Amino acid sequence: MRVELTDVISCEGQEMSKQVEIELKSFDSRLGRFPIVKKEPFAIQFANEGNRLLLMQGETDLTIAIPCDRCLEMTNQAFHLIIDKEIDLTGEKEEMRIEEMDFMAGTSLDVDQLIFGEILVSWPMKVLCREDCKGICKRCGANLNLTECQCPKTELDPRMAAIQDIFNKFKEV
């Protein structure tokens, strides 16, 4: 969804508040496609602070279904996004030039692109369905949280296979 900011940008001291629905249905990145299962309206305020400086503040909550890093079961990950940006409309400051922001096109703000960028920087390094997740069996692929597999529990080092063969021959005698 796009929000037109012409009125706020054109007058110093002008303020505007909006509550915008997020149109994103999924978070699509190089990591994969993750469905957004719950989203709250995005409450955002704009204020023209003078000297061609636009202050943007907003807040929303999203829940995205992400697979657990250990067992691959889908788990809901909550994101509380708080946006607080100062946008330099003159283009002189290095931090936030309006030409370099992918969520701004002229005086129009693309809310979905802004939210996408905020999700991307707050993406967790590791997602677990629960703290004590046992993961999956390396041999049979069974989810160890749900069942016990019958695979041998000892993991042998393949570099020691020749020595293991010697031990096995001595056991037969």
Question: What does this entry look like structurally?
Answer:
The structure is a single chain. This protein has three helices and nine strands. It has 173 residues and is an alpha+beta fold. The chain folds into two domains: 2-121; 136-173, no CATH class. The strands form two sheets. Strands 2, 3, 4, 5, 6 and 7 form a six-stranded antiparallel sheet that branches. It has a three-stranded antiparallel sheet with strand order 1-9-8. A hairpin with a 2-residue loop joins β8 (104-105) and β9 (108-110). The protein starts with a strand and ends with a helix.
H-E order: EHEEEEEEEEHH
Q: Roughly what is the average pLDDT, rounded to an integer?
A: 85
Task: Outline the biggest β-sheet.
Answer: 6 strands, antiparallel
Query: Could you give the distance between the termini?
Result: 77 Å
Number of strands: 9
What number of domains? 2
Q: Helix share of residues?
A: 10-25%
Q: What is the overall number of helices? A: 3
Beta-strand level of the residues, as a percent range?
Answer: 35-45%
Estimated radius of gyration = 26 Å
Low-confidence stretches: none
Structural class: alpha+beta
